[in-house]
Model the fold of this input.
Amino acid sequence: MSPPTPRRRALPVLTAALAALLCGIVQPAAADDPPPDWTARPAGGSTDRDARPYVYLEGTPGTVLQDRLTVTNSGRAPLTVRLRGDGRAGGWIRFAEDTVTVPARTRADVPLALTVPHNAVPGDSSGEAVATGGGEEIRVPVRVRTVGPTLAALGVEDVQVSGGTIRYALVNRGNAMLRPRLAVRAEGVFGTLLDRPERPLPLELAPGRRVERTEPWPDAPALDAVTVRLRVTASGGARDEAEASATYLPVAPAVGGGLLVLGGLAALASGAHRRRRTGRAAPQPPLDATPAVQPEPPEQAAPPVEAHPPVDTEPLLKAGAKT
Done:
């Protein structure tokens, strides 16, 4: 019988090495993602079906409300969990113990107290109860309703119109959760350009919240002076209106008109300059003007005086005396 060739000897070695490599790849992946061995949720309910999805409390301002948080350790070693509140309503929570050690395969119910502030506004508030342990963090939602008279007040402000976009801001000035509705209308020089009936907006506006939004206007005019008016409403009688004005001018005609005006001014300036230069070279009197002073004719020499002999006047005087 012939001895095995080197190629046949190397095949089992390569197969074993490949199998070991695959095992080394798969095992660490499974070790890095262990299943959770503890949970935190609102107390009550013996099964998952009966468990509450969140902590819900209700009271008037200044009231101290109580509940419990259940921490279940299904692992084989004790678990230490740190508890705290987060968010608006979470900041009102105080636990009986901020750090709890739960033995293996044991459940612990931790009491908590939530104090509604004296200045709390009637309405809904939310937050979370946070449990941290074993390198993991579990957040339990907390919902609180403050009982009291509610006020629905909604405002629309900072309306601006630019091109094909209308910008505005909504503000909840009351203490109730609002679901706003919006109507848009635009008037131009020659009539109505835009008339969108009231429709619900895809948002919930919490008390005190401000949201900036935009309304598209793809068919905005190219040449017009418009006034855009926004009207918002919500349940409970909340209502407000605001408006803004804008002037639309086509870019190309505006540029052409400006160039035409500049050309006309340049032509007038050039003509005036030429007239000034001509006037300096040869000043001419107006055609219809009459000289104020007429030139005098040249002086002529006086005629010579003829010489006559003297006249004897004595006989004439004697004759007159006789008469």
